[in-house]
Design a protein that fits this description.
2 strands, two-stranded antiparallel sheet, Growth Hormone, Chain: A, 19 helices, mainly alpha
């Protein structure tokens, strides 16, 4: 107890959550770099090896809905550390897998741990920070969620080239072990006094619905949107999610708290987040294809040319939390960030076969900087009018929306490339069709602009508690009006 007292819960939760999120998010992009090598090692086709990534994403989607209730029932510390332990152990097992079947099974286990990390950790973070300090918490959270996807290809390229594909999994072990040890020593326990009964129908419907939808969306570009498997999974997923919505709205203690979408601020921030995730994560995927397939760069060179985005996010997050959010409030801040993202992605459409890579890197930096102006205020404002008791389930929904947005973004932009034609014939030879990438970047920019109306629907008064008071001015006076009353007691 004396050792724990020397570390505040703000620091303890931040350290453990940042480490866990960094490890989980980086895993997606670092593994993608290794897939061709894994396929050659196991002697399987590129289509079959995709199951390694799909299994992880589907498992994430299945287990995310239960995470909020588990954190409330058993305590955030216990569930978060269990999730880290499962993810870390599964990573080690993936590294020693002797065949594709084993590797896919261990990736499912990895996804089970990863599905609980983000919602439980985010709920703990927002409970540790009072509303007026949540802009700081959001800046902390933005780092790993945007640095990790950019670092993954760089580190993955180095590990696969110089060591073995197995190290893209082993690299998680020391990070997870350190986070586990630190959390066991310094995290405090917390559990809601009335978490309610476990909503089994809601879990089964939401988990299977999200899992099928994620599978269909992820496989659509490869198998074809007209294929029976893809269309069947998407249709079944949507039907199950519709059934889940009908059941959950009549359930006294639902595992998926859809009533929270009646909260105007939370609903608007979720609309912003899903469109931002579609555009941002889809663009990160497409720019790597442009570098490697369009310009002939190696995976490592591609990763290094994408990495300026992470630097932009880290600098942008600091400016957002310390300067812009207190002055602008979430409404104008998020709208300006989306406009900046749209401009950066739109300029990427001008890249050609001979364009300077330094120009591309500058645009990636600008994209990351603008992304910081969306992620930081959206995450800070989203929970402003959510009660502590509902924070766990609100975090579950927020993270499910972000995960689904990322999958849709990759699928949508990959489909645009396929429809536009990834290659064409020039003088009898097949070469990369850079026009397809130009069209794709313009589509991503349009998605960003589609988020602006959602940002403008935010009322700064609703998020007044999260806006730090500027010197000489009370916090509520700068927001302009009283925040709307929120009733989440029935959630």
């Amino acid at each position: 107890m004396a050792v724990r007292a020397r570390v505040s819960q703000k620091v303890a939760v931040s350290v453990v959550f940042v480490a866990a999120m960094f490890m989980s998010i980086m895993d997606v992009t670092i593994v993608n770099v290794a897939l061709p090598t894994v396929g050659r090692d196991f002697g399987v086709s590129p289509t079959a090896v995709d199951s390694i990534s799909i299994a992880f994403l589907v498992s994430l989607a299945v287990f995310i809905p239960a995470s909020g209730w588990l954190g409330d029932r058993f305590g955030g510390k216990r569930v978060l550390l269990t999730a880290i332990a499962v993810f870390t152990a599964a990573s080690a097992l993936c590294g020693v897998a002797s065949g594709l079947g084993e590797l896919v099974a261990f990736r499912i286990l990895q996804g089970a741990g990863g599905g609980m990390l983000a919602p439980v950790g985010m709920a703990m973070l927002y409970r540790a920070f009072p509303p007026e300090e949540r802009i700081r918490a959001s800046a902390i959270l933005t780092g790993p969620t945007t640095l990790a996807p950019a670092l993954g290809p760089v580190l993955g390229g180095l590990l696969v080239t110089d060591l073995s594909w197995r190290w893209v999994f082993y690299v998680n072990v020391p990070i997870g072990a350190a986070a586990l040890a630190f959390g066991a020593l310094f995290l405090g326990g917390h559990a809601e006094s009335r978490p309610g009964r476990f909503d089994l129908p809601g879990f089964l419907l939401s988990g299977s619905g999200l899992g099928l939808l994620m599978y269909g969306v992820s496989e659509g570009p490869d198998l074809g949107w007209g294929s029976a498997a893809v269309d069947g999974c998407i249709a079944a997923g949507l039907v199950l999610l519709a059934a889940m919505a009908a059941v959950e709205m009549r359930t006294a203690e639902p595992i998926v708290a859809l009533r929270l979408l009646g909260n105007r601020l939370f609903r608007s921030c979720n609309r912003v987040m899903i469109l931002t995730s579609v555009a941002f994560l889809g663009t990160l995927f497409v720019i790597s294809l442009y570098y490697q397939d369009g310009r002939g760069l190696s995976a490592l060179q591609s990763g290094l040319s994408t990495f300026p985005e992470a630097i932009g996010v880290m600098l942008g997050a600091q400016l957002a939390s310390r300067v812009l959010y207190p002055r602008l409030g979430p409404r104008r801040h998020i709208a300006a960030g989306l406009a900046g993202m749209a401009a950066s992605i739109g300029l990427l459409s001008l890249l050609g076969a001979q364009s300077s890579l330094w120009w591309a890197r500058l645009l990636m930096f600008a994209l990351g900087f603008a992304m910081g102006q969306v992620m930081v205020p959206a995450q800070a404002a989203a929970f402003a009018t959510i009660s502590p008791a509902a924070t766990g389930r609100a975090s579950t929904m927020f993270n499910a929306v972000r995960q689904l947005g990322g999958a849709i973004g990759v699928a949508l932009l990959t489909t645009v490339i396929v429809v536009a034609g990834a290659v064409h014939r020039v003088a009898g030879h097949e070469v990369a069709n850079l026009a397809a990438y130009r069209v794709t970047f313009l589509v991503a920019a349009a998605v960003c602009l589609a988020g602006v109306p959602a940002a403008l629907s935010i009322r700064d008064a609703d998020a007044a508690a999260t806006i730090p008071a500027r010197r000489g001015r009370p916090r509520r006076a700068q927001a302009g009006q009283e925040p709307a009353a929120v009733n989440d007691a029935a959630v």
